[in-house]
Amino acid sequence: MKILKFNAIWCSGCLVMKKAMKEIQELYPNIEIESYDYDIDQDQVEKWNIGEIIPVLIFTDENNNEISRLIGEKTKKEIIKEIERIS
């Protein structure tokens, strides 16, 4: 599984989730996390149809197909719950 993380430096929710995402990476070292900047990586923002609400976490399978998506600020517990649900 891979997590595509869409955020921006001006996004307060993105900053709040930064610590949680670091802890999740430590808890799940087998999950690759790719980060994209909402303002810079417009090709990826368009490809994944990211709306106006960020942060966005997109969970993908080994073929890079979307399995699930979380939109908006989430707690570490909520992200872990989603990882466990789709694993």
Summarize the structure.
The chain is of the alpha+beta class and 87 residues long. It has a single domain, classed as Glutaredoxin (3-Layer(aba) Sandwich). It is built from three helices and four strands; from the N terminus they run βαβαββα.
Structure explained in plain terms:
The chain has 87 residues and is an alpha+beta fold. The chain contains three helices and four strands, in the order βαβαββα. It has helices spanning 12-27, 42-47, 76-86, and strands at 2-7, 32-37, 56-60, 66-71. It has a four-stranded mixed beta sheet with strand order 2-1-3-4.
Task: Present the secondary structure layout.
Layout: E1 2-7, H1 12-27, E2 32-37, H2 42-47, E3 56-60, E4 66-71, H3 76-86
Parallel strand pairs: 1-2
Antiparallel strand pairs: 1-3, 3-4
Number of extended strands: 4
Classified in CATH, the superfamily is Glutaredoxin
Order of helices and strands: EHEHEEH
Q: How many distinct domains? A: 1
Alpha-carbon Rg, integer = 12 Å
Helix content range: 25-40%
CATH class: Alpha Beta
Q: So what's the overall shape?
A: globular
* Percent range for β-strand residues: 25-35%
User: Structural class, please?
Assistant: alpha+beta
* Biggest pleated sheet: 4 strands, mixed
Largest sheet: spatial strand order: 2-1-3-4
- What's the average pLDDT? 96
